[in-house]
Every structure is written in structure tokens, then in C-alpha cells.
Amino acid sequence: MNNLSLYGWNDSLFQLKQTSQYKHLFHGRVSAVNKTNYEVITEGGLLLCELTGNLLYGRSLFELPCTGDWIIFQPFDDNKGIIVDVLPRKHTLFRKKSGTISDRQAIASHVDKAFIVQSLDANFSVRRTERFMVQVLEENIQPVLILTKSDLEFSRHQVDESLKHIARQIPIFFTSILSPETILPVRKFIRQGESIVFVGSSGVGKSSLINVLCERTVLPTSEISKSSGKGRHTSTRREMVLMDDSGILIDTPGVREFGLASDNPEALADIFDISDFAESCRFENCTHVDEPGCAVVEAVNNGLLKFEVYNSYLKLRKESWYFSTSEHEKRKRDKYFARVSDEAKRIKKR
């Protein structure tokens, strides 16, 4: 028997279930999504479930169950069931679906914290961390930066300098699976019943970190590649595991590109430490590009705001606007952002 409260079930979810016409049936949480079925954690154990025709053909791909979703099901065999309803999602991490303009792909739902995992080798990228932060904060999920492979040789000073604008806003942990003392603070940071999604590129050590946090092998891992010095891609699906007397960890496959699907481009100013400067701009609706009296551009020119941070802000703001606007507005925005790009280049040359 499973205690579903350990998997995040609470009074709020119970109230959501009461709004469903299927409230008299059983509920469970999707632990993994396969090509033809869903693995669902229930009070009675693990079930393999399929969708009813109404769900399969009556909803968009984005609305179909993802890892972390709470569903209502009808059992029909010892270890099988039919999903008849999906409870409304909260705190859903998603990204722009590859090859599309504005379609979203749900990665995990009912998430409390997102561990943005980067390794302290050639994979390390502040810009990638910023991108993950934007999408995580969009859904009111708490971002946490986990830097792995701290046993490798790296410049702590350079890393700290590059993360200054991020360190003011989110917790950062330097870890190595070879040093248990670096894992302990991360384990203490996870509370019972919390759902944590792990995101990052392939080979940064997400699955290995989850195994160490769980103090047992719950996910497959592979050896380090001798040619590249990186871990080989292991995770092929989004999968949920339970820590003993602690939280729920959701592993995700590594992504080469995390397409931004943010509907709130203006919120980026807070993430990039630009808000304080923006308050001193001459115009309230300043775009921080070429307006007279722009305190943000002045901060870049005076070295108070790093150009790399400012340029990343402009790039992600463009991507966010492009995702959230109509096709007609996109054509107008394209002309505007062409000017933004040219102006950013001129600022760098000053």
C-alpha cells in the first residue's frame, strides 16, 4: 500500500477532485509517461493506465497527462486502469515545443522546486541557467541552481563572478557525488511531500545526483565518455521517484535547447537585476534600448551592469514577446527587434 500524502496528495487536491464528475473513483499520480500508456502511483500500487477515447481525442497534446499530474482512474485489472479525468494543473514546468511557434510541451506538473543542474566543466553556461530561471519563475516554481562535478578543476572566482546577478535571487549548491558532505545540504533542502524537477543538459549528472540523494540506485546511469569527458545521455523519459521520508524527485531527459514559453516578458527585468536601474529611467514605458535618459543603458555603459547580462535580457525578452504575441504583432515586433539588436551591438562597441 502507498501513502499518497508522501507523493504530494493534500487537502487542496482533494477539493479539486470534488469538482470532477468522476470524484467517486480512485485517484493517483502519473510517475512516468510511455508511448502507449502511463505509469500511475496509486494507494494500491503501480498501475499501467491508458486514456479514455474522450481524453485521447478530445484534448490537445498539451492537455494530455504528463509526469506529476494527478489523475482519476477506473481499475479494470490487477495492474491496469483507464484514466477518465486529469485534475487541474498547478505549477507546471513547460517549454516551447521544438519546431513550433507557440505550442507548449508540459514537462512536469504540481512542482514545488526546480533544480537547474549544470556541471562545472565545458557544459557550464550562465545563459542557459537564466533561460531555465525565466520559465521556472513563470509558474511560481522555486528555482535552485545545482552545480555538479565540483571535484573537477575550475575557477571558483570566475564562476562566482558570472553568477552574481543570479546568486542574489536563488540558492546555489556546489556538489560532487564523490563528496558526500556536498550532497547533505541539498538533501536537507528537500522537504517531505515536495516535488522537485531536475532540468539540464545531457551529461551533467542529474540521474547520478538523484541516486546519491536517494542513497540507492533508482535510475540508470552511464560511465563518463573518454572522448568528451562528459556523461552519456541516459534518461529517456520523465520519471518520478520517492526519497525515503522526504520529497519526490522527477528526472528529465537532457535538452540541448530549452525553448522559452513565457507569456510575461516584462517580468524578466527582475530576474536580470535590471529593475532597480529601470526605476530611474526618464520614461515609464522605457524599452531600455535607445531612449534618452535610459538608466539601464547608462548602467551598461558605466560598467554597473554587465553587457553579457543585458544582452541576454534583450534576447530572452524578444523570445518571450515572440511566443506570446499574434502573427500580426510578430511582424511589427520583428522590425522593432532588428533595431534592438543593432543598438545592442553599438552599445558594446562604446
From TrEMBL:
<keyword id="KW-0690">Ribosome biogenesis</keyword>
<comment type="subunit">
    <text>Monomer. Associates with 30S ribosomal subunit, binds 16S rRNA.</text>
</comment>
<keyword id="KW-0342">GTP-binding</keyword>
<feature type="binding site">
    <location>
        <position position="288"/>
    </location>
    <ligand>
        <name>Zn(2+)</name>
    </ligand>
</feature>
<dbReference type="Pfam" id="PF03193">
    <property type="entry name" value="RsgA_GTPase"/>
</dbReference>
<dbReference type="InterPro" id="IPR027417">
    <property type="entry name" value="P-loop_NTPase"/>
</dbReference>
<keyword id="KW-0479">Metal-binding</keyword>
<dbReference type="InterPro" id="IPR030378">
    <property type="entry name" value="G_CP_dom"/>
</dbReference>
<feature type="binding site">
    <location>
        <position position="281"/>
    </location>
    <ligand>
        <name>Zn(2+)</name>
    </ligand>
</feature>
<feature type="binding site">
    <location>
        <begin position="148"/>
        <end position="151"/>
    </location>
    <ligand>
        <name>GTP</name>
    </ligand>
</feature>
<dbReference type="InterPro" id="IPR012340">
    <property type="entry name" value="NA-bd_OB-fold"/>
</dbReference>
<keyword id="KW-0963">Cytoplasm</keyword>
<keyword id="KW-0378">Hydrolase</keyword>
<dbReference type="InterPro" id="IPR004881">
    <property type="entry name" value="Ribosome_biogen_GTPase_RsgA"/>
</dbReference>
<comment type="similarity">
    <text>Belongs to the TRAFAC class YlqF/YawG GTPase family. RsgA subfamily.</text>
</comment>
<feature type="binding site">
    <location>
        <position position="286"/>
    </location>
    <ligand>
        <name>Zn(2+)</name>
    </ligand>
</feature>
<feature type="binding site">
    <location>
        <begin position="200"/>
        <end position="208"/>
    </location>
    <ligand>
        <name>GTP</name>
    </ligand>
</feature>
<feature type="domain" description="CP-type G">
    <location>
        <begin position="90"/>
        <end position="258"/>
    </location>
</feature>
<keyword id="KW-0699">rRNA-binding</keyword>
<feature type="binding site">
    <location>
        <position position="294"/>
    </location>
    <ligand>
        <name>Zn(2+)</name>
    </ligand>
</feature>
<protein>
    <recommendedName>
        <fullName>Small ribosomal subunit biogenesis GTPase RsgA</fullName>
        <ecNumber>3.6.1.-</ecNumber>
    </recommendedName>
</protein>
<keyword id="KW-0547">Nucleotide-binding</keyword>
<keyword id="KW-0862">Zinc</keyword>
<dbReference type="InterPro" id="IPR010914">
    <property type="entry name" value="RsgA_GTPase_dom"/>
</dbReference>
<keyword id="KW-0694">RNA-binding</keyword>
<comment type="function">
    <text>One of several proteins that assist in the late maturation steps of the functional core of the 30S ribosomal subunit. Helps release RbfA from mature subunits. May play a role in the assembly of ribosomal proteins into the subunit. Circularly permuted GTPase that catalyzes slow GTP hydrolysis, GTPase activity is stimulated by the 30S ribosomal subunit.</text>
</comment>
<feature type="domain" description="EngC GTPase">
    <location>
        <begin position="109"/>
        <end position="256"/>
    </location>
</feature>
